[in-house]
Design goal:
This protein is mainly beta. It has one helix and 19 strands.
């Protein structure tokens, strides 16, 4: 339906850390008589919300036009804070736990969990593709909720705020290219197959028109052929190991 926006479908929001946010999660924001499509097929899991004050709102759900909303919550740690129109269970939200958060002393200072953190009691093996934390440490099979592990080798510097994010928001001016060029990766269809030629390694993700992910494969340099059995239009995303990405639309007929 043309309701002024694309409906959120099959989104996965995991392994994020929110520190002292006035509103960490606001779901179905700005729904109204015309904005009538709530998020569906969406998972919010393994996130960590840390508040030094109980006045912050952890979850705010706008109930206007929420019929059909389909959001699955799981293993989200939230030490304290308020909730609006959200009654959680113990498996959806773990509350009142001390994550032992402290400033990490990074150039762009951030909070990270410390020794004895309650996060250690709620690790997960989910999402095998999430292999490193925000500072490059290996996550292994015992991933902590949030964006940070407690141990491991730090191999990634914290980004400067003005160098990341959407161009219209922070106006990043890093001097780096923001997308891959056709010289780096060429993705196309011969009508029955998806063909990817890459000069850089990365991962390819294929989504059907409903937003469902149907393929996720690592790619090495060279040519890779992927079979898609069902006819239709698809969105293909290639993400290089260095973080650049490109998106294209293909048709299988």
């Amino acid at each position: 339906a043309a309701n002024e926006y694309f409906q959120v479908k099959n989104a996965i929001i995991e392994f994020n850390t929110f520190v002292n946010c006035t509103q960490a999660f606001r779901i179905n924001y700005n729904s109204s008589s015309s904005l009538t499509m709530p998020p569906i097929g969406t998972v919010i899991a393994n996130n960590h919300i840390y508040n030094s004050s109980s006045s912050n709102t952890n979850v705010n759900i706008d109930l206007t036009n929420s019929t059909g909303m389909d959001v699955t919550w799981s293993n989200n740690l939230m030490n304290q804070g308020k909730y609006t129109n959200f009654n959680y269970t113990a498996t959806q939200v773990i509350s009142g736990k001390d994550a032992k958060m402290a400033l990490a002393g990074t150039t762009i200072n951030m909070y990270e969990p410390g020794i004895g953190s309650a996060l250690l009691n709620y690790t997960t093996t989910e999402n095998a593709e999430v292999t490193n934390d925000i500072r490059g440490r290996e996550r292994g099979t015992a991933k902590l909720p949030g964006c940070s592990q407690l141990t491991g080798t730090i191999s990634r510097a914290m980004p400067v705020k003005t160098e990341v994010g959407a161009g219209f928001y922070n106006n990043p001016s890093t001097g780096f290219k923001q997308t891959l060029s056709s010289a780096d990766v060429d993705i196309y269809s011969d009508g029955t197959q998806l063909i990817a030629r890459c000069s850089v390694p990365g991962n390819i993700l294929v989504y059907d028109i409903s937003g469902k992910k149907i393929i996720q494969n690592p790619l090495t340099e060279g040519t890779t052929v992927l079979n898609i059995s069902k006819k239709g239009n698809y969105i293909v995303v290639f993400k290089s190991v260095s973080g650049f990405s490109t998106t294209t639309k293909i048709m299988i007929n």
